[in-house]
Amino acid sequence: MIEITSPIRTARLVLRPFTERDEDDMLEFESRPDVARYLLNEPRTPEDNAKELAVRLKQHALREEGDTLLLAIELGGKVVGYTLLIWLSRPDQQGEFGYVLHPDHHGKGYASEAAAEMLRIGFEELGLHRIIGRCDPRNAASAGLMERLGMRREGHFLESQFFKGEWGGEYRYALLAEEWRRSRRES
Ligand SMILES: CC(C)(COP(=O)(O)OP(=O)(O)OC[C@H]1O[C@@H](n2cnc3c(N)ncnc32)[C@H](O)[C@@H]1OP(=O)(O)O)[C@@H](O)C(=O)NCCC(=O)NCCS
Asked: Which residues are in the N-acetyltransferase domain (predicted)?
C-alpha cells in the first residue's frame, strides 16, 4: 500500500495529488478534442470536468487491488497533465499506467519524465512485478513514449473494441520489474 502525502519532484516537474484549485487548469486540456481523441472519455464540459476532479481528489493512494493513483503533472506552478497507476492484481503484482499532457507542452519529454516516475513508484514503492500500458495503434505519440521508456510491445489486437463510432485496435506494452532495475543500473 502507498499513499502520496507530499509533492514528488522529478528533474523538471512536480507530481502531486489533484486539489480543488486545479479545476481551471484541468479543464484547459481535458476539454480539448485532440487530447480526448484516443482516451475513453469525450472532451469534458465544465460539468464533466468538475465531476472528474471530485473523483481525482480521492485518488492519492493505492490501498487495495483495483485502486487508481492519479497524480497531477505540474510545470511552473500550473497543472499541465496527469499520470496514473492502476493496481490490477495484488497476488500477481500487476499494474497499468497511463498519462496525458496538455498539447502546448508536447515534444519536450515531460510526459515521459512523469510516466517514468510512475513506473518507479509502481516497481520500487508498491513492489509490482509487471506494469502494462495500452494505446490505440494510431496513437503514435503514446506508443513512442512507451518505447522510449524501454517497454516491450507484446500484443497488437485488431478491432478489439468498438471505440468512438468505429472499430479500434490496441497495442499492449509491458515492462517487468527486473527489466526496470536493469535499465536503472545501466543509465
Ligand atoms: C501521449 C502523450 C502524453 C505524449 O506526449 P509527448 O510530449 O509526445 O511525449 P514525451 O514526453 O515522451 O515527449 C517526446 C518528444 O519530446 C522530445 N524530447 C525533447 N526533449 C526530451 C527529453 N528530455 N526527454 C525525452 N524526450 C524529449 C522527443 O524527441 C519526442 O519528440 P517527437 O514527438 O518529435 O518524437 C501526448 O501525446 C498526449 O497527452 N496525448 C493525448 C492523451 C493520450 O492520448 N494519452 C495516452 C493515452 S494511451
From this structure: 13-178
Q: How far is the CA of 40 from the centre of ligand 1 (A)?
A: 19
Q: Whose CA is nearest to atom 25 of ligand 1?
A: 109
Whole-angstrom distance, CA of residue 137 vs CA of residue 3: 33
Distance in Å, CA 12 to ligand 1 centroid: 15
**C-alpha of residue 109 to centroid of ligand 1, in Å:** 5
- Give the separation between CA 167 and CA 65, rounded to whole angstroms: 30
Task: Convert the pLDDT of each residue in 83-135 to its tens digit.
Answer: 999 999 999 999 999 999 999 999 999 999 999 999 999 999 999 999 999 99
Q: Ligand 1 centroid to 90 CA: how many Å?
A: 30
For the chain, the structural domain boundaries read 2-186
Cβ-Cβ contacts under 8 Å for 101 (sequence gap 6 or more):
29, 73, 80, 81, 110, 111, 114
Ligand 1 in contact with 12 (CB < 6 A)? no
Q: Is 101 in the pocket of ligand 1 (CB under 6 A)?
A: yes
Segment 56-68, tens digit of pLDDT: 999 999 999 999 9
Topology annotation, domain 2-186: Aminopeptidase (3.40.630)
